[in-house]
Amino acid sequence: MKTKISIILIALMAGLMALTTESATAQTIRKGGSVYCRINNGTIYNGSGSQIGEFKSGSIYNSSGSKVGEVRSGTIYKSGSEAGKVNSSGKVYDRSGSQIGEISSNGNIYNKSGSKIGEADHVDAGLAAAIILFDVFK
To answer: Which helix (H) or strand (E) holds 20?
Structure first.
């Protein structure tokens, strides 16, 4: 009887650890209050749950596997060219140095007018800026 209880406890603990790991890796970006995309273990899904791309080693790929963007040390590249930067305080600048938005430490995303346009839960600021402010998937 003790063996069965031990096996059941181990199975339950493994299940709880799997749930904890899943929630720790899932990230969400909201735009206008709706889920814009989810990122889970590098795979990017749109709000409907369809895969739209991947984020691997700083590069962003569309669903066809073509590289559409890159995030390196706060610099965002779109279609091979520098599109802008995110500084350490979350301010987002285009390639000419004009501020086009901000991603606050709590994950709120603001446009250049200071209006809140979205939220990024546990998402790298550079990746969130590339997806929302620089539209790398368009």
So the answer is: helix 2-25
Closest CA to 124 of 17, 27, 48: 27
SS3 content of the chain, % helix, strand, coil (to 5): 25, 45, 30
Please state, in angstroms and rounded to a whole number, the distance separating the CA atoms of residues 93 and 10. 50
* Nearest to 81, CA basis, from 91, 92, 96: 96
Torsion sign (Cα): 30, 35, 41, 42:
negative
pLDDT over threshold 50, residue 59: yes
The dihedral over CA atoms of 119, 46, 66, 59, expressed in degrees to the nearest 10, equals 30
With contact defined as beta carbons under 8 Å apart, do 73 and 83 qualify?
Answer: no
What is the dihedral sign for C-alpha 46, 136, 126, 128? negative
For the stretch 101-125, pLDDT in tens is 999 999 999 999 999 999 998 898 9
